[in-house]
Amino acid sequence: MVDIKYIGHSAFQITNGDKAVLVDPWVDKNKSYDWKKEPITDILLTHAHGDHLGNTVDIAKSKDITVTAVAELASYLAKDGVKTKSIGLGSWINYSWGRAVFVPAFHSSSLPDGTYGGVAAGIIFDIDGVRIYHAGDTCLTGEMKTIKELYAPQVALLPIGGNYTMDVEHAAMAAKWLGVRTVIPMHYGTFTEIQADLQRFAQLVAFGNTACQIVNPVSDESNAKK
User: Fold this and answer.
1) The CATH number of the domain where 127 resides is what?
2) Which domain holds residue 71?
3) How do residues 200-214 score in pLDDT, each as one tens digit?
4) From 27, 64, 65, 71, which residue has the greatest number of CB atoms within 10 Å?
């Protein structure tokens, strides 16, 4: 069974059996999450901004695991002694827990030193027949229609906070274009600029796709099992 655990902001742990992958692990804001006790085998990063890079270096070094990221970000981390897998967009990458492909996201990406961090990305996970789309930081984009056609994800992890990413109106349209059965909202409420109305988001999604379920990370304890 594939388990999706929402840690906070845009950080997720996706577990398959005795293996788990962390995505955008800014995890220190969630005091109940103890990464030292989790069976993490890989970290995947959508882009280089600090609220997504998060605790990557500490976790990767402590657990001696590999971080997959676009070339510029991977190179930056490798200089800090992190084991990395450097990738671009558009091809499947195989792992012990399944496979993933990095897809376009429309957003900026800069390294902690202010230099260019490579292109921002979303990530499609294919794990035991379950396809999960982590959109990263992005605006609404027609690429999502292509994602539906090519990958047919069942679950979408969508930013809804606005200002830097989609807001609830655009994220609801994204859910419709993607044709997913489940949406877990993310990247909202962490900063003053990215507050979001979850009730309105649910109403908008239901209006566009009555078959789509919203999993509220707060009330549903951040977990979805597929």
Assistant:
1) 3.60.15.10
2) 2-225
3) 999 999 987 778 999
4) 27
